[in-house]
């Protein structure tokens, strides 16, 4: 059974290096405070990486994934929830060997998303579940209202993710013209239905 941690505060925060971040504070059952700080661009990255449709899906993933077992950690990989249900991919090379599915080694983004969804679900049922306070406004609504995710930004990041996935698997990279960095993408609103 997962512990329920109640989110009670959300604030915009700027790192020492000038990066815009979200600071989410949650109260654990023992009364202590857990603070999770992440770059505001993380939501857009998760949407691009896993083909997520909404900011809520990305926010849920971002809040819970720190508690998941890292499948790339050789000391802990056996506990990976996706591995436990058989989500593996064949490693390149002449020796038949397999690895748990992750973003870069998955055959498809859908496979990577399924594996990550399994990890997040495992966290929410067996470790930690971030919940809103009962009978009060959800502090996470601040992020939902001010997220700064844009369709252009998601497309730009998806192209970078595709290039990184191809490079990891030793595939040909797309022509450089396909990857266009638009530094103002975060300033344009999402198309209707993506909020």
Throw out a few tags for this protein.
6 helices, alpha+beta
SSE topology sketch:
Elements: E1 3-14, E2 20-27, E3 33-39, H1 41-50, H2 55-64, H3 81-84, E4 88-90, E5 98-100, H4 109-126, E6 128-131, H5 141-146, H6 151-168
Parallel strand pairs: 1-6
Antiparallel strand pairs: 1-2, 2-3, 4-5
Structure, described:
It is built from six helices and six strands. It is of the alpha+beta class and 195 residues long. Strands 3-2-1-6 form a four-stranded mixed sheet. It is globular, with a radius of gyration of 18 Å. The mean pLDDT is 90.
Strand order of the largest sheet: 3-2-1-6
Derived from helix and strand composition plus strand pairing, the structural class reads: alpha+beta
Biggest sheet record: 4 strands, mixed
Helix amount: 25-40%
Number of strands: 6
Shape: globular
Low-confidence runs (pLDDT<50, min 5 residues)?
A: none
Strand content: 15-25%
* Average pLDDT over all residues: 90
N-to-C series of helices and strands = EEEHHHEEHEHH
Radius of gyration: 18 Å
Distance between the termini: 31 Å
The DSSP helix count reads: 6
């Amino acid at each position: 059974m997962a512990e329920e941690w109640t989110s009670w505060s959300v604030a915009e925060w700027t790192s020492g290096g000038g990066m815009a971040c979200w600071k989410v504070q949650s109260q654990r059952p023992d009364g202590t405070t857990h603070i999770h700080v992440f770059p505001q661009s993380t939501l857009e990255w998760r949407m691009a990486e896993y083909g997520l449709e909404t900011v809520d899906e990305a926010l849920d993933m971002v809040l819970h994934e720190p508690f998941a077992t890292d499948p790339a950690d050789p000391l802990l990989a056996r506990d990976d929830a996706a591995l436990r249900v058989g989500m593996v991919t064949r490693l390149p090379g002449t020796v038949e060997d397999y690895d748990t599915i992750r973003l870069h080694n998955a055959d498809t983004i859908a496979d990577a998303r399924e594996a990550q969804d399994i990890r997040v679900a495992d966290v929410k049922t067996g470790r930690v579940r971030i919940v809103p306070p009962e009978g009060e406004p959800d502090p996470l609504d601040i992020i939902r209202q001010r997220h700064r995710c844009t369709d252009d930004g998601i497309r730009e990041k998806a192209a970078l993710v595709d290039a990184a996935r191809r490079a990891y698997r030793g595939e040909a990279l797309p022509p450089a013209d396909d990857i266009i960095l638009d530094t103002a993408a975060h300033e344009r609103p999402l198309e209707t239905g993506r909020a």
